[in-house]
Amino acid sequence: MQIDKVYEPQRFEPHWAQSWIDSGIFRASPGAPGRVFSLVIPPPNVTGSLHIGHMLEHTEIDVTIRWRRMLGYNTLWLPGTDHAGIATQMVVERKLAEEGITRRDLGREEFEKRVWQWKEQYGDNIKRQMIRLGASCDWSRERFTLDPGLSRAVREVFVRLYEKGLIYRGEYMVNWCPRCQTALSDLEVAHTDIGGHLWHIRYPVNGLPDRFVTVATTRPETMLGDTAVAVNAQDARYLDLHGKTVQLPLMDREIPIILDDLADPEFGTGVVKVTPAHDLNDFEAGRRHNLPKIKVIDENAKMTAAAGAYAGLDRFEARKQVVAALEQAGALVKVEDYKLSLGACARCKTPVEPLVSTQWFVKMKPMAERAIEVVENGRVEFIPANWTKTYYEWMHKIRDWCISRQLWWGHRIPAWHCQECREIVVARETPSACPRCGSAELVQDPDVLDTWFSSGLWPFSTLGWPDQTEDLATYYPTSLLITGFDILFFWVARMIMLGLEFMGEVPFHQVYIHALVRDADGQKMSKTKGNVIDPLVVTEKYGTDAIRMAMLQCNTPGTDIVLTEARMESSRAFANKIWNAARFLFQRMELCGVEPWVPENLEKFLPEAAGAEVPIEDRWIFSRLNDCAQQVNRAIETYRYHEAAQLMWQFVWHEFCDWYLELKKLRFQENSGLTAGWRNILAAFENMLRLLHPAMPFLTEELWQRLAAGPTRPVSIALVSYPQYRREATDFAAEREIGILQEIVTMARTLRAENKLDPKQRLAGTLFSANDTLLEIVRRHAEAMQKLANVSLTLESGHFGGGGGSGLGFGDGTGDGLGGLSAVRSTAEFDLMVRVPRSQEEAQGKRIAKEREQLEKNIANSKRQLSDEVFLGKAPQKVVDNIRAKLADYEAQLAKLP
Ligand SMILES: [Zn+2]
Ligand SMILES: [Zn+2]
Question: What pTM was estimated for this model as a whole?
Fold first, then answer.
């Protein structure tokens, strides 16, 4: 039962983290008994290292899965990582740049080898960190999106969708990064607000001398590629222009005036330029009106030959020259400052260029319809429910999905182009000859698939699909997905669509969307702001359990999580409190010669008699624990993690430690060789550890092992049952009695604090109650109350001052004279009066005077700051608010002084 004096989680957390892995207790088995509860991890990028958002996500998953495991479910938490196409490619390219080479110097095959080498060397980072933080996942089922098995699933899905006509090649507007030379998904584009300009340009109308239309644009260089201007058919100002054309300045090209809703009569002049090759909305308008697409900017962001005099210029240089030329030609009406949102490549910060290119697409509409249905009929539920609306909005306006990327790292598209007849062959295995012309000259499509294509298959590809494995049959559909809102569309929606398409069943029944972790000022964490909390640093400092508890506690649904040092510190104090409670018990056990013991069937254990009867505090703690367990179970089941954490905190600290152990200490004083009743104490303690285990796995394991080690016990607390509500453990009588004891002791303590009385000085008091039954209960526990409150009590029937009884008897047991001061406090059933002994009056007066002086000083200080204009001008609002709040607090305290 040796236990260190100080709680130092750093000493035992790594040990248990490794021990859990080595013992294989988190390994799932399809044949295991119990209902199935399965969940796949949102695979972190293989390039990543664990950030605080992961830690939140993994804590919520881990609490849920540990809880289900303890409930007897056949659980699986499947871990793994994503190959993260562009992110990983960039990392390796940067390394190559340090060696002074590019991927093109190496060639594709050699480059891929280098990425794999990099993955072997650094790809396990996240895994190591997750193990260290206690994630109870099944590492024997770890997957990587580029594993052979998953790659086979990807090819199978691609071929089937292609055969079904749901994959096609087509022209589309994509976000293009001229630096990375690839199409980007919307998630890979970072938008920042910048101060730009709006250039107003006028185009002369052909056939109507002196008639012009004025268009406004933030990118004047694109006007070189205009192939129309649009007005709204309803716009009365332009009825005379229907069917006319304008002359495009600088290019001297005649382009039509089209009627399209693209032009909003309420916005600007009501006329817009149409550049189908360089803007997505214009691209679609171009399709509607069959307009030519003139590409004036190329993949390197240089002007093309179609840009005439500007050919070869960089796009930004071209902008300057176009503006100058327009001005010279008298076509520039005005230039305004204009705030705009600039899209840049999230990886390299180069402004993206919308470009038309030939890409591979998935038709989404047919799959989206079914994916909407399953949410409508409740087969997939979003929590919190407000995300359902966001999901519908996205799904109803879904566009075809561009799945090709011009990268080298990823799943190569299983399509081959015949060099003879241009036939495209899509196949599971590399074809040897063109099925149309027989030529052997087949070249595989150079593109790879969007990373989300493979992660979209994650819930079934990781379980062995396309093979009909036992894992797939047992663990699909998964029970739950816990993830962030930012990938609700990119990932969650696509998993639903692809799961329905290939498994004929939803991939998960519930989706819990977690919040964002913010810093103490409510700011989003980012490396550039320097406010990032590194989970490995804070867990090293406070212990993993404390950070988990802190995160759960501030996890109120629907709000972001504000994680502060103060919160982490107080969680550590909580862990420390438990440690000290354990230390106290273990030392007592040694003193009393008590061996570690746990009941064979804790689920059925009820407190036993020690001597004549079952100690009241044992009946009470079992009843309280029973109530707490019922509420915690409900809270975890409904993802109210903050509530579960607060219930645990309240029970452990304010019931188990503050009252139960204090009452037990009195028992030990009564009888230092206490032997009877230990079984109750140990059973209550073990139950408390079980209750707490999903939230604080390390601390509870460390303590439980000392109690319960032995050949017939499970190897870990993670495998024992979770406390459940039992009708027979509820003991209202015990709760009522201890409730009265708590009420009176609390009254006495409050009186003492309010009147600045020395906590060590034993006081004399009288307790009044008109309810004789209550007084009877008080009499029964008078000794404990008097000791805990440090007051000698006289009991009186009736009310204070109500003449309830005569001959108030004071005996303070010290022979000290009694002073004239008395203090009274009342609750619904009781009045408590204490007399302040003469010997205390002087000291009390001094304490009060000192406190008054300090408060007055603080108030003066705060007021001075709040009237200092210079300070107010400079200080952040938060600091000022804080001072105001403190001032109000000081004033309230001052008013309360006796
Ligand atoms: Zn880029
Ligand atoms: Zn051919």
Answer: 0.83
